[in-house]
Q: What sequence folds into this?
């Protein structure tokens, strides 16, 4: 992806690709991961397209910092998880696969699902995704 080309996340933000949206404001967009590590696995993305965190503006960084705790609380409340991971990768060698800054909120559930090594995901059921997105969206203060 060149800087001029929209990333897949920019295309999601622009409504070109469907998603299970949880949250949106002027600077931030959050949606369910379609290949989650666990139920409620969410991506929190700045609307500003920057490949890595070190290239993201202070304004977008601050906006993400303000909403990560609120979105995390909503996910924990809805999924019943107590523990969770926040994962953010920068660069190919650091396992970044989409070169648009994004934070993963990954609940660790009682069934053992969540972030584990080696990483393993499963397909999100569309009906489950739609209901979960609606419920978490309503829980975000």
A:
């Amino acid at each position: 992806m060149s800087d001029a080309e929209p990333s897949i996340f920019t295309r999601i933000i622009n409504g070109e690709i469907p998603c299970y949206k949880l949250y949106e404001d002027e600077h931030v967009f959050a949606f369910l991961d379609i290949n989650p590590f666990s139920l409620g696995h969410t991506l929190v993305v700045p609307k500003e397209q920057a490949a890595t965190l070190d290239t993201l503006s202070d304004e977008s960084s601050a906006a993400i910092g303000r909403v990560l705790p609120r979105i995390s609380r909503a996910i924990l409340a809805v999924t019943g998880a107590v523990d969770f991971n926040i994962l953010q990768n920068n660069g190919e060698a650091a396992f970044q696969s989409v070169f648009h800054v994004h934070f993963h909120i990954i609940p660790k559930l009682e069934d053992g699902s969540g972030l584990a090594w080696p990483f393993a995901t499963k397909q999100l059921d569309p009906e489950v995704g739609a209901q979960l997105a609606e419920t978490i969206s309503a829980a975000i203060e």
Summary: The chain has one domain: 8-139.
